[in-house]
Design goal:
The chain has 158 residues and is of the alpha+beta class. The chain has 3 helices and 6 strands. The strands form 3 sheets. A two-stranded antiparallel ribbon has the order 1-2. A two-stranded antiparallel ribbon has the order 3-4. The chain has a two-stranded antiparallel ribbon with strand order 5-6. Strand 3 and strand 4 form a beta hairpin. The chain is flat, with a radius of gyration of 29 Å.
């Protein structure tokens, strides 16, 4: 006995299985049927009402029974789309490599490594001293901030 689908909640979508490459129809939850209420302390989404879209985000291929989240079921790319993606990936990797070289030649990474090494050399005694002088440093930094600003006296209301 097949259950009747609610057309207001679900919409049919043609999908291709990434494993067996067979096309099938799956039903996805309409985006306007649920809304986010809040997030828990662990960032888990809590939705308004009794409908949780996470329960409907898994698809199963009726041919090979591969099951995964909807994001892993996507249409096949054409040759042109595959060529464009490969070209983009190549340019992206070249750009990232250039940025790494630029950061290294500017001394930025070397400076970060040296500073990290200095922090590893701190002893518990040094840390205790830093904790004791922290309030004094904050006070001095705050007074330096005020020196740079022009102070205008408050006007009294008549």
């Amino acid at each position: 006995m097949a259950l009747a689908l609610n057309d207001k909640l679900f919409v049919p979508k043609d999908t291709v299985c990434p494993i067996c490459n067979k096309e099938f129809k799956r039903y996805v939850l309409r985006k306007n049927q649920f809304s986010l209420d809040k997030r828990d302390i662990d960032y888990r989404p809590v939705y308004l009402g009794n409908l949780n879209p996470r329960f409907f985000s898994v698809s199963v291929c009726p041919s090979c029974y591969y099951a995964a989240e909807d994001k892993y079921f996507c249409p096949l790319m054409t040759e042109e789309e595959s060529r464009r993606k490969a070209l983009l990936d190549n340019h992206k990797s070249q750009w990232e490599a250039q940025n790494r070289v630029r950061a290294a030649t500017s001394g930025q990474q070397i400076w970060k490594d040296l500073e990290a090494e200095k922090l590893r050399e701190l002893t518990p005694t040094n840390i205790a001293i830093l904790r004791q002088i922290k309030p004094l440093l904050e006070k001095v930094a705050g007074s330096q901030d005020h020196k740079g600003k022009h102070h205008q006296p408050e006007r009294k209301a008549r």
